[in-house]
């Protein structure tokens, strides 16, 4: 009798074990591009400003010619090292602001709702302090990982990839790093593969955009135009990546917690 009961217990245990759901790499990529191009001007309206400000601040630190790749810095040693470090910090801040704004647009678009641009500002800016600080911390850790053997940096990027949505959507605050680590557990290598695939596609697109931008710069180039063109190109990649991160977060919550996109987006209603 005891043996029969134990066999039944084993059968129940085995039947309740659920296979791990796939992240859905192709779906996430396809949805990201669809949302981006379906809301192209709205994405640029939200993301272009922070990107342009970031480029202006970076140019002021290292020189606009250096930023454009047409000249080398006129200072060296400790000075250039500090300047480059500050430029990297600025880029992390720009990413944080851009993602905070676009994560909300991504969910509205996913639900086929009209984007509500003005309503994105409050939730984004109310969470900026922890978002910026933690984005800088995770960014520095990622850079250290990339400097080692590249792969550790990509793993750290995946580990903290949904930091921004966790802070903006859930108000995770300074617990955002832990929340991202928890959500990405068991899916980090899939996220690494997704991000690498995304970057390869983006490189190909940027090569085409870069050629067109260079031709315009050669014909009509001046400092202001070059800066605007650089901001337009940078916004393209930043906007796409921010939307992808928002969708990764939504997919992880769907898999692990059974939370749908409309439930996630309802926090802004």
Describe the structure in your own words.
It contains 13 helices and no strands. It has 269 residues and is mostly helical. The N and C termini lie far apart (57 Å).
Quick description:
Helix content is 82%, strand content 0%.
What attributes characterize this protein structure?
single chain, mainly alpha, 82% helix, globular, disordered N terminus
Give helix % range: over 70%
Characterize the biggest β-sheet.
none
Name the average pLDDT: 83
Q: What's the overall geometry? A: globular
Number of strands: 0
Radius of gyration: 21 Å
The H-and-E topology, N to C, reads as HHHHHHHHHHHHH
Task: Give the amount of beta strand, in percent.
Answer: under 5%
How many H/I helical runs? Answer: 13
Please state the structural category: mainly alpha
Calculate the terminal CA-CA distance, rounded to whole Å: 57 Å
Chain-wise SSE layout:
Layout: H1 2-16, H2 25-38, H3 40-62, H4 64-68, H5 78-110, H6 117-126, H7 128-149, H8 151-159, H9 163-170, H10 176-184, H11 188-220, H12 223-257, H13 261-265
